[in-house]
Protein 1
Amino acid sequence: MRLPELKLSEVSDPRAKRGQRWRLEQLLRSVLVGIMAGSKSLADIEKLTSEMSQSMSKMLGLCRRVADTTMRDALCKFDMHSLGSLRQALHRVIKSAQRRKALEPQGLPFGVVAMDGKATALCAWDDDIAQKHANEQTHHAYGLMRTVTCTLSSAVAKPCLDAIAIAPKTNEMGFFKAAFVQLCENFSSLFTLVTYDAGVSSEDNGQAVVDAGKHYLFGLKNENRLMFQLAKDLLQNKPVLAKTIDVLSNKKTTTRTLRMVEQSPLPSGQNELCWSHTRTLLSVTATFEEDGKVVAQETRYFNSSLTPDALEAAQWLRVVREHWGVENNNHNTFDKIFREDDKPFITYDTKGAYAVLLLRRIAYTMLALYRSVSQRSEDKRQTPWRDLLRSIYNALIAASDAHLIGLREPKHKDAIAFL
């Protein structure tokens, strides 16, 4: 019932008008519901459309089987303009959820966006989306489609706000400013703080965030030698301000502790150890125990433009931990549940592959909002992803008119395009 919010009819159709047997919105809807039902290929989606119950076919506007070649041909004709309009469909899902108060920050006074890069190997490359690489052992060429995933980590559903394609001639560090500008253009009202790992940590990138009226939390590693060493020296004797204990089993536990120190501002260039806009240095130490014995320990360091009093100590630790929502909730789900790396649907056309990637983000976000927000029972909100996808599949092939009676009608004016 949320599908009309996407306004798939507004996605720019790059195909020639002559000879069209399917509207583009019908083909996109087929791929989208197929992904939501756990299909691992366009051939699986074709089979799903042939098995779909008559009632669901009518509701979705799919009067007959949709051939996998038809879906593939349409997706492979996408150009950058059409892909941009498909990204806007994802944006509409987010903005609709924002209007119904489904994206409120949990345990934090403001919204936080976690950003991280993801790469998918393809059999093709171009000048817009996929970068050409060569296998070091076989010397075979392949394409790498790299995107920046933007996740609203402060929301309970951890929805994907955007998946921005990294230009082939640059990397995450060089592309951060462009990605951040696009994030602010579309979702500025949703967040105050942006988090990223050490892959984009630089004074210029931090300055770009501050100049936009936002704040950053960046990871620090040995590559940032001066500030990394400063953080390590200043924090080693500081008291623990917050702690969490996760019990993984009867014998395994993980304890995380936070230490923090305020950094006094200095004019740019007068402190070579620390950026002029950094106000807080912090560390999080993870201690892994088994049978009461420490088996491993890891400390990670961060810097932020927020002052220490902007958040309580427990909230600082929460922000650091929830940064990995972009990896654990988004990327992990794409790879393990939707099998994105193993089953990308399209590998010989870069723009077709990116179109599928965007549809997969739309499917994930809609299901994540349904699972974590729409469901009222706490048990149902813990439904495993595979069970959720199977329930979608069962509904598509088994729902009858009797099951659909009483469903609330979509309020959106474009709902008539659905039928």
Protein 2
Amino acid sequence: MVVAFMTLRVTLCSVFAVGIGLGLFAIEAQQPAGKAAPKGGVQGRLTFFDRQGKVVRTLGEPGLYRTLTISPDGKRIAFERTDPQTMNRDIWLRDVMSGKETRFTSDPGWEAFPLWSPDGSRIIFTSNRGGAFDLYQKASIGTAAEELFYKSAEGKGPTGWSPDGRFLLFYSIGQPTHVKLLATSGPADRAPVPVVNEQWSSITARFSPDGRWIAYTGNESGTNEVSVRSFDSVTGAIGKPMVVTSGGGRTPLWGADGKEIFYLSQEGMAMAIGFPAGTPKPLFMTPAGVAFWDVTPDGTRFLMPVPEP
């Protein structure tokens, strides 16, 4: 089926004008698990689109979907879904080809932001089972127990894992939000390093495929734009910001070779821009309410929840 989503166009300008400093994508840490609807959640189905906005494939049953991610080999997806009976929010895994679906978490707390390790063997996620939203890890195959990965007083949502496996990117859940860099080894209470000066808001950061760059959304320029900073994985040094969008940009994703960045405009248009220098190119209008999305490793298909008609 081919679907043209211009009819689903939604004006998000008024929402995003408020800015990421208000934590639009953030889990509300003061909210009891299983109560109010989560921000960024879409009642519908997970759907793959091509670069022209045509539906390639619809996955699974209808549900309330939110954070999601595609495995490094593109064969599996991990996603957050709300149980319609209990309103509990857990992470599920799905094999793209076979359609087999398995529950990944079962704790009564709220589990979200699944993030695959570079080799796909592990998944890190956030959970408020202990009070604050801390990070936990678990093998992506088998029945291994979940382990505490990182604990701190602030809530956090993981969004990027360096290709060499040594560093993690997360953003603090609160108002405003701040992107931070965390070593993947060390004690559970090890200290992270701010990627962006905390006088500014920043969110949803991702490492480039070669690990040399960090793309994120921030308001250092005065408006919410996608910026990129260099990163030295040997020393952990982070470079100065380079703004790559204009007129608003959010939720960046890297293309397969690191020479292209995908992002969402203020209006919800999926955009592509060459990196380090290129002209923004509109791809297609995303469905109403989409805040979280991902791209396949080859950069040809995009996964996001689509509202049911």
